[in-house]
Structures are given as structure tokens and as C-alpha cells.
Amino acid sequence: MPTPSVGHNSDAMLDTDEPVAADQLRLFIERIERLEGEKKGVADDIKDVYSEAKSSGYDAKTMRMIVQLRKMKAEARAERDMLLETYKAALGLD
Amino acid sequence: MPTPSVGHNSDAMLDTDEPVAADQLRLFIERIERLEGEKKGVADDIKDVYSEAKSSGYDAKTMRMIVQLRKMKAEARAERDMLLETYKAALGLD
Amino acid sequence: MPTPSVGHNSDAMLDTDEPVAADQLRLFIERIERLEGEKKGVADDIKDVYSEAKSSGYDAKTMRMIVQLRKMKAEARAERDMLLETYKAALGLD
Amino acid sequence: MPTPSVGHNSDAMLDTDEPVAADQLRLFIERIERLEGEKKGVADDIKDVYSEAKSSGYDAKTMRMIVQLRKMKAEARAERDMLLETYKAALGLD
DNA sequence: GAACTTATGTCGGTGC
DNA sequence: GCACCGACATAAGTTC
To answer: Which residues contact C72 (CB under 8 A, 6 or more apart)?
Structure first.
């Protein structure tokens, strides 16, 4: 049960707690930074696809609308399913 | 009902233009949707890391500040490097 | 055409610019504050309706889902219409 | 799916519970939707005021800070007053 | 000026 | 029963 808060090391009080905590924090930060990098990469990829599509004569604005519309449909469906589940649970049918 | 758009293929070509175009658009859309999905996945991963860090006693808000500060530093350094490159090129030192 | 930026009063440079500007700003602020108050009032009204519905045996969470679902449907329809307009414009049919 | 609340009509009542309940739910939903609409309208009005102020040369960010500061002051004052009331009540001075 | 992303504040759920 | 916590909605900032 590692915690960032100060504590004691079992063996003779060798002060290793803080280094460990610092390493742990550093690790979290680095994982986040790596993931942020990935996210940026994917976002750039998306941009590239839009650019490529534009080069093929498609309008980005229209494409965005299509993507959004499809997403909304999918979300509505998911919501509907959830609603159904809720009803079923409320009626003891699950 | 394939596509609403009008058009015909000139000379002796089989009529493949419209299907191809529709497929091409569909392909672009699907690539984007797939990438959007990936992006969401990564974003969720980031959230998870913050949660995990919080469970270890770290404050998310503080961590965000750290990440941001480091990003700014990295950008500043990149800018400095670029500037240096520019100078070197201008002086014929590259 | 009063502006907050410094200027001249037409009649003999009586320095009334700043009071006017201050008043104008004050007026903007007060309008915003009044609207913020209204917005909070409406938000509270919404809460009240949910509470009232709960007292009548309805589940707030389910109601929220219904409201959201309906909103999504409406938005999808609006989006669809917009998309149609875009197509029509693109095809010179408007 | 009839109604969330079970119920029956006590003796000799015509079976109008379910329609009534459905209507009741519908009514709640519609009231909420109407209020949501109002809230959006007010939010848009606020945006308009900021835009208008910007056109007059004021900086929106600064204005937001002013609004927030004034709100905090007002809240602090309200809290003070409440505290005073509490004291007065405790001392039988009300 | 419009879209996207991040950040903050609020609200309902839960555990002590 | 209250306080904490996580989730959601709104709001702000940033970028194209």
C-alpha cells in the first residue's frame, strides 16, 4: 500500500520513502505524457484523413457533419438500449 | 439505390465511377470513425491513469499542472533549438 | 457612438469620457449579472420539476435519459436538415 | 410499460390511472424541456452581451473576472449576514 | 468566428 | 446522517 505521504522504512529507517514516492509520481506523469503524445498523434491522423479526402474532392465540413450525424445515431441507439435496461430493471424483468 | 448523384462514364468504360466514389467516401468516413474511436480510447486511458494516481494519493489537479508545465518547457526548448538551427543555417554552419 | 477607448468630447473637451465609459461597462456587467440570476432561477426550476416528479413516483435518472434521448433525436433531425441544405447548395439546387 | 408507480383505482373508479400517469410523465418531461429551452435562451443572451461589450472595446475575459469577483463578494456578504442572524437568534435578539 | 479540448463546478451515489 | 467521491454538464480557452 504505497502512499505518497511520508512514512518509515521497515529496515532501519533508511530514508528511501521519498525517492520511491517521487519515482511513482514521475512514472504516472510519464505514462500520461506518453498517452497524450499518442492522442495527439491520432488527432493528427484524423486531420490527415480530412486533408486527403479534400484532395479527392470531398468537402471537410460536410464530412464532419456526416460523422457527427452517425455518431449521434449510434449514441441515441445506445441510450435507447440503456433506457430499455432501466425499464426492465425497474419492472424486475432482468 | 446506390447513389443520388448523377453522372455517366464516357466511352466504353463500365459504370464503376459512382460506386467507386461512394466507396471512397465511405472509406474516408470509416477511417475517421475508427481513429475517433482510438482517440477516445486513449483519452479514457489517460483518465484511468489520473484515477490510479489519485488512488495512490496524488492530486489530479496538481498533476495536470505538472504535465502542462513540462509541456511548456519542452515546447520552449524545441523553439530554442529551432531558432538555433535557423541561425546555424543562416551562417552556413549546418 | 460611445466607445470605451479614449476620445474627445465634441464640446470644448469637457472630460466626460471616462464616466461614460465606466457607466457603459457597469451597465454591461449589470445586464450580465441579471441574466445570470435568471439562468440560475431557471436551473432551480428544473430541479424543482425533477423533485416534484420524484414525489410522484418517477425516477429522475430515467427522466433525464428520456429528455436527453429526445434532445438527441431533435438535434439529429436538425443536423439532417442542415446536411440536406448543404447538399442542395453543393448541387446548386437552392 | 405503464407507470413507474403501481396503483389501482379504488372502487368504482374508471380505469384512468395509466393514461393519467402517462400524461403526467409527459407533462413533466415537457415542462423540463421548456425550461431547458429557456435556460439555453438566457445563456445565449449572456453570450450576446459579451459580444456586444467586446464590440464596444471591452475584454470578455476581464469582464468575466469582474462578474465572478462581484459574485464572491455578494456571497461573502450573504454569509456574513446569515452568521449575524444566527448569532442574533442564539442570543434571543430576533 | 466556429470547432475542439480542457477545466471547473455541481449533483447524485456511497461508504463510514 | 454527513461527508467524500466519482460522474456529468457547463464553461472557458485555444486553435484553425
So the answer is: A72, A75, A76, A79
pLDDT value at C1 more than 70: no
**Statement: residue C8 has pLDDT above 90:** no
Alpha helices, H only, chain D: 17-55, 60-90
Q: Do A67 and B31 touch (CB under 8 A)?
A: no
For nucleotide F12, give the residue with the nearest CA to its C1'.
Answer: D61
Residues on A contacting D at a C-beta cutoff of 8 Å: 87, 90-91
Q: Which of A9-13, A32-36, B19-23 has the highest mean pLDDT?
A: A32-36
The footprint of strand E (CB < 7 Å) covers A 36, 39, 43, 64; B 39, 43, 61, 64, 68; C 43, 47, 50, 60-61
Q: What percent of chain A has pLDDT over 70?
A: 81
B partners (3+ CB pairs within 8 A) are: A
CA distance B36 to B3: 26
Chain C and chain A touch, per 3+ beta carbon pairs within 8 A:
yes
Contact D39/C31, CB-based, under 8 Å? Answer: no
Quick: pLDDT tens for D24-80.
899 999 999 999 999 999 999 999 999 999 999 999 999 999 999 998 888 888 888
Residue A7: its pLDDT value, please? Answer: 43
Show Cβ contacts of residue D72 under 8 Å, excluding neighbours closer than 6 positions. Answer: none
* Nearest chain B alpha carbon to A32: B46
CA-based torsion, D53, D54, D56, D58: positive or negative: positive
pLDDT reading at D11 higher than 70: no
* Region A52-75 average pLDDT: 92
In this prediction the pTM is 0.80
Per residue in C26-84, pLDDT tens?
A: 999 999 999 999 999 999 999 999 999 988 888 888 899 899 999 989 988 988 998 88
Q: How far is CA C84 from CA A65, B30, B74, C40, C80, in A?
A: 11, 21, 46, 37, 6
Q: Cα(B79)–Cα(B37) distance, rounded to whole angstroms?
A: 32
Q: Which chain C residue has the Cα nearest residue A61? A: C86
Distance between CA atoms of residues D90 and C18, nearest Å: 48
C-alpha count within 13 angstroms, C-beta hemisphere, residue D64: 8
